[in-house]
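Listing S7. Sequence submitted for prediction.
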Amino acid sequence: MKVDMHFHLEEGPYSLRWLSRTLQALASTEPEREASLGHHTLQYGEEMAKLLSRRIQQGCYSEEWLDRYLNTGRKRGIGQFGVVDHLYRFRECRPYYERHMLLDDTPVGRMQQAWLDQVCVASLSDFVRFVTEAKASRPDLALGIEADFFPGGEQELREILAGSEWDYVIGSVHFLDGWGFDNPETKSKFEGRAPVQTYKHYYELLRQACVSGLFHIIAHPDNLKVFGFRPVDEKELLPYYRMLAKEMVQSGVITEINTGLAYRYPIGESCPSPLFLSVLAEYKVPLTLSSDAHFPDDIGMLLDQAKADVERMGYKELVAFRDGKRLLVPINGVIY
């Protein structure tokens, strides 16, 4: 059985690309409409315009939109789902990000301020309420959250997370000293950086995230490579891979094979890399699978390959979560 414990109902910013991508997802998850109305017909265009309008009016917290993910995922062999959202999407959490992000009058600071204004538009309570109610009739669905880890912000984050009943919490590192390194508009800040030293800093943050006790899952544990930034010889990172794997075991957290970077970013490789995955297997770090989909037609993307990679490394089971507890999912069986 496959699991997908990391997908998002929306992201932003709300550009023409976002509108186009949303329309594509609606069309891809409702192919019978095109078949019945005919390809490139005016009637089909009108019907798709109505669908897009309804999606925007309803927002992403609608059963219709959620079920596009779940129905598509079930057809692709997924048996357990976990829906999350980025903590920075929620107005209630904005002060947490304002304290830790670089939002000064530099070019990067101004760009990140504009980005936060564009994406921090949702309500945490609305998200939690919607998914909690949806779970009642969807036993294969779990409620999670993806929260950025900032050193020194542990207590503040603990208080934020304590306000809701999560099935699990994903910890991620997207920022180095306040710089959001996976934003293509800021990737110029990679220039001149020493790869090994930068990764040393990054993995120290992930280590601190592990020991914080805040998280059940550490997300995409080598996403610093998003734009291809890493040493020419990846083996130089082995000491950090081993350090983090050991810390995960000691701290009782797991990680994921996240395919999002493989199909959405220039690096074209899942997280973790094959070399890093071999280290995780050596230390017997439990794993889950994640497509990191932001649109329903992407759910489950490349998870067949991820599942095969896990099996090749000797894993017999994957991990899902309910009520903060692990559910073991045999790769070729049922939950126990």
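Caption to Listing S7: primary sequence and predicted structure tokens for the chain studied. The chain has a mean pLDDT of 96. The CA atoms of residues 56 and 318 lie 35 Å apart.
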